[in-house]
C-alpha cells in the first residue's frame, strides 16, 4: 500500500456507484493529471472485499499499453482508494455516441479496437491471467482511440494443470457455451469467446446473444451456432447442464446477421466463436490472423483511423449511414473455414425468423442495459 494521502487527489464528479465501491473522476493536485478514483468502504467485520484484493494484486503486475494502469492504492482506516489512469469512456458508450444509427462502428474502427483488444488479452494470457469478464463496458477508450482492458475484479491467475474455477463468471451475454453448460475446467478460451461476441457487437451495435437467463442464453447461441452433439463436440453430453432434449438447430450463416462482415473478418469471427473450447482461436492466433495484416505486416498504426476522424463533428454524418451499405459482401474467398468439419453446412436464417428474434431480444436488451447503468467506465464497483 502507498503512503500517498487521499488529499493529493481532488474529486471532480461521481462516475458511478456500485455494490461495494464508488468511482469518481479526479485530478492529481500536484501534477494536474486526471485520474479515476475507486473508493471502497471497508466493513469492520468483512474487511477488504476479495474482488478488490484480486484486482490490486493482478493489476500491479500487469503493465501493458492495452491494460488500464493502476497508479496507486491508498489505504486508510475505513476506506481503500484505487487510483487508476482516467479514460474518457467505455466501448459501449463509444458505440452509442459515434456509431451508426444502430451503434455499429466503421469496419476500420472495429479492426483498430479488435487489434488492441487482442493485444491486451494476449498479454494477460501470456502472463497466465484470465480476465473472465470481457464486455464492452469493461473496455476503456481514450480520446485518441486507445483501447484498454479494465475491471480485473473477476480475473484469476491460472496454472498447469488447469485449475477448477467457478462457472459464475462473465456477464451472461458474453459467456461461452462450455461455461453455460456447467464447465469448471476452463482456461483462456472463455476470454476468446467473449472477444468474438464483442467483435460481432462492434459490427452491428447490438449484442449477438442477448439472453435473459442461463438456459435462454444457450438457446440464443444454439439458434445461430447450431445445437452441439457428440459428433460435433465430443464429450458435450457429460457437462452438468447438458440436456438430451435440447431443441435442435443447424448453424446459420453469420453474414446474414452481420452483413458488413468481409470474408476475412468472417473467418476470424468463426474462429473465435467455436462451440468447442479446444477449437477456438487463441489470442496469439487471432492477433496474427490475416485480417490484422495491415497492422502486423503493413506498418499501419491502429490510431491512424482516428487521426483521420474528427469524431464529434463526423458522428452526425455517420448516424445517417447504414452499416449494411458500407461494405457489400463479395463472393466467398477460399479461406480455410475454422468451423468443425463435421458440422452440418451452414444455412442462412430467413428474414422473418430474424425479425421475430430481434423483436424478442429488444426488450431483454433494454432491461439488461438498465441494470448495467451503475457501472462506470469499466472500473468495477
Care to describe what's here?
The protein is an alpha+beta fold. It contains 13 helices and 10 strands. It has helices spanning 50-59, 91-98, 107-126, 177-180, 189-204, 214-225, 254-257, 263-272, 283-287, 293-296, 304-307, 311-319, 351-371, and strands at residues 9-17, 21-28, 34-41, 70-75, 79-85, 89-90, 129-130, 139-141, 147-149, 156-157. Strands 1-2-3-5-4 form a 5-stranded antiparallel β-sheet, with helices on one face. Strands 6-8-9 form a 3-stranded antiparallel β-sheet. A hairpin with a 3-residue loop joins strand 1 (9-17) and strand 2 (21-28). Helix 3 runs antiparallel to helix 5 and helix 5 (189-204) packs antiparallel against helix 8 (263-272). It is globular, with a radius of gyration of 21 Å. The two termini are 20 Å apart.
Residue stretches low in confidence (pLDDT < 50, at least 5 long) are 310-337, 339-352, 370-374
> Order of strands across the widest beta sheet?
1-2-3-5-4
Helix percentage: 25-40%
Q: What's the number of extended β-strand segments?
A: 10
Q: Strand pairing plus helix content: what structural class?
A: alpha+beta
**Largest β-sheet summary:** 5 strands, antiparallel
Average pLDDT metric: 82
* Strand fraction: 5-15%
Number of helices: 13
Distance between the termini: 20 Å
Q: What best-fitting shape do the alpha-carbon axes yield?
A: globular
Q: SSE order, as H and E?
A: EEEHEEEHHEEEEHHHHHHHHHH
Radius of gyration: 21 Å
EC number: 2.7.11.22
GO molecular function, one term: cyclin-dependent protein serine/threonine kinase activity
Domain Protein kinase: 9-292
Biased composition (Low complexity): 307-373
